[in-house]
Write a structure and sequence with these properties.
Helices cover about 35% and strands about 25% of the residues. The protein is built from 15 helices and 19 strands. An 8-stranded mixed sheet has the order 12-11-8-13-16-17-18-19, with helices on both faces. A 5-stranded parallel sheet has the order 2-1-3-4-5, sandwiched between helices. α1 (about 15-25) links the parallel β1 and β2. It has about 400 residues and is an alpha/beta fold. The structure holds cytidine-5'-triphosphate (CTP). Cytidine-5'-triphosphate binds near residues 254, 304, 306 and 323.
Length: about 400
């Protein structure tokens, strides 16, 4: 597991040295990136010695002068190699750059180039922290799914008292571990995840499908893998790449998905059904391409099997989690599905809201179990995935207590 630790310019920069050590103690490799300003406070050598890796000090710092092709694309290589980006301390300047998408040094470029989770631990003068501009930037980042390790209150280096002190190293490391999913609380579990849309064939060139992109299911697969699970991913056709470590079964129709899921069920301890399965399919797919005529055309449809309802009957002691896409009476409908399909939990999203859910990077959901409703306000699908897994951990613990 590898983390990029961005150190930006502030008196608290020296505290990042201890963060490097704490992360390494947990077996995490640390690639330190220092901004120009950070180098005014602490020398790169300190971090190079502690981390055992070359410290990146600017956009063209791969060592060669003039910069060579390797250094020119180093931010992309680092972006792809890391499992999380942590910035501690984070100055007001870096918060502003991240929020606005500026990319004029290595750290801000890396922030744009990586898809790994991001954690920032701000530290600055109290007035700078409380300034409307800084607070607006923090809000933008929070909405984007960046984890904010809130600064503490106390005496600040500038002589003032108030909020702005870098959070404790323990709080920073805990947030980084959470982002990495390094708690490994899914080790020993096999999670069967269905994702994406299904395609129901009309004729050799046409099919019925829906707007599901597969992103929610793939985010769950990735998050479960990082938390130590074995992941069996049954996926309909999508345009995105599944996580490398998932065991993938590609399917097209609801029928094929049904078969694959039932076959894999005995291996699974947890089933999460994010797939947007077609409820109806053409009664008979035409062998030949259907020709245009002048009159209207009717397509005879028949119901597909309800995979989820069938699973609840076939299961042994697996936990079964469904998803529900609703456009009206959202919670009420979801509660009905929870009961009707005998699920342990259902994750419901209001797909009538713009910018979230179907075919989007973001989502806002409510996780319903039989005894609670956890609301997850709009955030990234990665963050939603983490919250869903957190709820499953709770369900597991409760099941263990009940069977004890
Ligand atoms: N589902 C399934 N098999 C189907 C249809 C749905 O397994 N043939 C699963 C989905 O994967 C999802 C859950 O059932 O986890 C709810 O899907 P949704 O489309 O919201 O509900 P439906 O049961 O299809 O009800 P409706 O379309 O009437 O809202």
């Amino acid at each position: 597991m590898k983390i990029a630790l961005g150190v930006s310019g502030g008196i608290a920069a020296y505290k990042a040295a201890e963060v490097v050590r704490l992360l390494q103690e947990r077996g995490i490799r640390v690639q330190v990136i220092m901004t120009q300003a950070a180098q005014e406070f602490i020398r790169p050598l300190t971090f190079a010695t502690l981390s055992g890796e070359k410290v990146i000090t600017d956009l063209f710092s791969a060592g060669a002068e003039p910069p060579n092709i390797d250094s020119a694309v180093e931010h992309i290589a680092v972006a792809q190699a890391i499992d999380a980006l942590l910035v501690a301390p984070t100055t007001a300047d870096i918060l502003a750059k991240f929020a606005q998408g500026l990319a004029n040094d290595f750290l801000s470029t890396l922030y744009l180039a990586t898809t790994a989770p991001v954690v920032v631990a701000p530290a600055m003068n109290v007035n700078m922290w409380e300034h409307a501009a800084t607070q607006a930037n923090v809000e933008i980042l929070r909405k984007r799914g960046v984890r904010i390790v809130e600064p503490g209150e106390g005496y600040l280096a500038c002589g003032m008292v108030g909020a702005g002190r870098l959070a404790s190293n323990e709080a920073i490391v805990a947030a980084a571990l959470e982002a990495l999913g390094a708690s490994q609380d899914f080790s020993g579990e096999t999670v069967l995840i269905t994702a994406g849309p299904t395609r129901e064939k009309i004729d050799p060139v046409r099919y019925l499908t829906n707007r599901s992109s597969g992103r929610m299911g793939y985010a769950l697969a990735e998050a479960a893998l990082r938390r130590g699970a074995r992941v069996l991913l049954v996926t309909g056709p999508t345009a995105i790449t599944p996580p490398g470590a998932a065991e993938v079964t590609q399917v097209e129709s609801a029928q094929e998905m049904h078969k694959a899921v039932l076959q894999l069920l005995p291996e699974a301890s947890i089933v999460i059904k994010t797939a947007a399965v077609a409820d109806y399919r053409p009664k008979a797919a035409s062998v030949q391409k259907i020709k245009r005529t002048t009159g209207p055309m009717n397509l005879d449809l028949e119901p597909t099997p309800d995979i989820l309802a069938g699973l609840s009957r076939a299961k042994q002691n697996q936990l079964i989690i469904g998803f529900a896409a609703e456009t009206e009476n959202v919670l009420e409908n979801a509660r009905k599905k929870l009961a009707a399909k005998s699920l342990d939990a259902i994750v419901v999203n209001d797909v009538s809201r713009k910018g979230i859910g179907f075919d989007s990077e973001r989502n806002a959901v409510t996780i319903l179990t039989r005894d609670e409703a956890v609301e997850v306000p709009e955030t990234t699908k990665w963050e939603v995935a983490q919250r869903v897994l957190d709820s499953i951990v709770k369900l597991k613990k409760r099941a263990a207590i009940e069977t004890a």
